[in-house]
Amino acid sequence: MDNKLMLMIPGPTPVPEAALLALAKHPIGHRTNEFSNIMAEVTANLKWLHQTENDVLMLNVSGTGAVEAGIINFLSPGDRVLVGSNGKFGERWVEIGEAYGLNVEAVTAEWGKPLDTALFAEKLQGDTEKQIKAVIITHSETSTGVLNDLETINRLVKEHGEALIIVDAVTSLGAFNLPIDSWGLDVVASGSQKGYMIPPGLGFVSVSPKAWEAYKTAKLPKYYLDLSKYRKSTAKNTTPFTPPVNLIVALHTTLRMMKNEGLESIFTRHQRLKNATRAAVKGLNLPLFGSDDYASPAITAVATPGMEADKIRSLMNKRFDIALAGGQDHLKNQIFRIGHLGFVSDRDILSCIAALEVTLTELGHENFTPGGGVAAAAQVFTQS
Amino acid sequence: MDNKLMLMIPGPTPVPEAALLALAKHPIGHRTNEFSNIMAEVTANLKWLHQTENDVLMLNVSGTGAVEAGIINFLSPGDRVLVGSNGKFGERWVEIGEAYGLNVEAVTAEWGKPLDTALFAEKLQGDTEKQIKAVIITHSETSTGVLNDLETINRLVKEHGEALIIVDAVTSLGAFNLPIDSWGLDVVASGSQKGYMIPPGLGFVSVSPKAWEAYKTAKLPKYYLDLSKYRKSTAKNTTPFTPPVNLIVALHTTLRMMKNEGLESIFTRHQRLKNATRAAVKGLNLPLFGSDDYASPAITAVATPGMEADKIRSLMNKRFDIALAGGQDHLKNQIFRIGHLGFVSDRDILSCIAALEVTLTELGHENFTPGGGVAAAAQVFTQS
Lengths: 384, 384
Fold this sequence. Notes:
Two copies of one chain form a homodimer.
Chain A: E1 6-8, H1 17-23, H2 33-50, E2 55-59, H3 63-72, E3 80-85, H4 88-99, E4 103-108, H5 117-126, E5 132-138, E6 140-141, E7 146-147, H6 150-160, E8 164-168, H7 180-183, E9 187-191, E10 203-207, H8 209-217, H9 227-235, H10 245-261, H11 263-283, E11 299-303, H12 309-320, E12 322-326, E13 335-339, H13 346-362, H14 372-383
Helix pairs in contact in A: 1-10, 2-10, 3-4, 5-6, 11-14, 12-13, 13-14
């Protein structure tokens, strides 16, 4: 059915009508009081959302651009960095480190498994000469639905004392409790089309005082991604370059919505959506890709042994106008991924699972009790 | 009056209702056939607009990001480059070159004057060892309303044979005839909130085969701004990173509008808007900042001797909801700038000039015949 699309992918995520209408307002000039007033409120609310007094800077880039800025502003060629890599995005941060001539040590785990904190302990504790300048971690690995144990790895980084912790929080920020100040996270990067409930186009980077100290001696070249320019402008409620005005006006709207909902409620809701989705998948007798013990609050990956995952996605789209994400790289056609990030309600999960039941039945997967998926999700919802 | 703003600044420029409504459509997934179909048409139409068979790549960045990508993809540390600098943007490209460790030679002219082509001739002809790797030119210098003589400088670069010509066409593309293929321009960068008639958030870079040759040996580090990634993806009607889907859907709409209007008509319209604006300013007995001989089709800068330019802007905004741009840096409060770029009609110029007459009168500038500004603009419109 036309114009009936329901996005259950990890980004772009669903956008509330109020934000779409804000997006459609005619742009205003960005060198005006009116825009500065919006910037002031947006910046304050971003700090609230990030649970930090650190600078939270907004760039006109995708999530990848935000993470790249978060890396290159604080390091110099040849710097030794540890990069956690257990999925598509971890691999990307390795590539970025290499593109910039860093001395990258990838700490890998199989796709679908979490990073092994013991490996980080070993490397960080063994680094008595304090050569490791940064540890780069993907919090929620979007490609597999794995939530890495950032809290433990961060504690190890703190014990090391020298290294910065740089976090890709692209699909965890606004979905999972990530208390930047109380954990002492140095650099946290994220993107607008995720927990922020607006379309893609803005990246966010929070920067700690310790990271700003590192900035002073960091030698990697940068200009458009130079965060000090954004810091200077943000302090004056403006931007160094022409910003995507419409997106910022939409963000102004969604941040108010988030404040109304409250951080606690937002995190609880994502937890509930995750639990219901996972329960439902079990109810459908499909194997979850990755254990409940390290499951992302943003996305659930489902394995489809004996079935083509892309056929399921294709029929879900055709019959019910529900967009699911596929597997990436070697997981192509092996898994599908259900996004439950941002502007997603309990009802959306029920719709998605109910439609999935019909789809699976039509494709001949009958190894489940009809209604079993929905019933399992319903049970989570009635309990919480 | 609320919601009555009329943008006469050089960006963001006015956005047609159809594009605003397209912007407000719920985002779709970017890894879908539906999006790829849009990408295919957008890419084809971008080539049409750029008058080129070269790659035209779309990045989620501002105009500055696009120019930076246009520079850093084709050069290595220490490379000698000539950078034309006769305004705020020329100065910025000098800064970018320096930030990346290029051997930058700024070829300067006073703000408000065009670049001196003889200086380029001297340097390029004197470079018998072909050390100059690139010449970077701002075509329309937004800060002053000066249109540099790109055609002549490009011819000198062609005679040199080795250097690439890299063009900041941010406020000339879609306003002025810039035939990339017939002139042989290597790299041309621009931004969405200008001639493209959509809000800010997208940058564009066209790349010639000669520039791709230079890319192969270029050593400046890059990842998010690595144009080869965009080239590879664009060839498959997709994007390397999550794109600003809504802006691309809006661009899909405005490029169709531009095709309907036709290139010739678009350029003629901008020429007419420029001529009418300049005639009107003369009719108001205000000095134009910069001569008619090198006037930008996108923006007209007006000097205000004996008056505070910002008072004029402020009253125009308060009384008539017309946003004009101010002077930058040392020109602050010395000039104001009237944008006539993109979705601007003859009527808009008449409105602006009529309102300006009232404003000037209210501020005590009475050294003109009432109606003289509008009459002068009208004369241009009746003649053309």
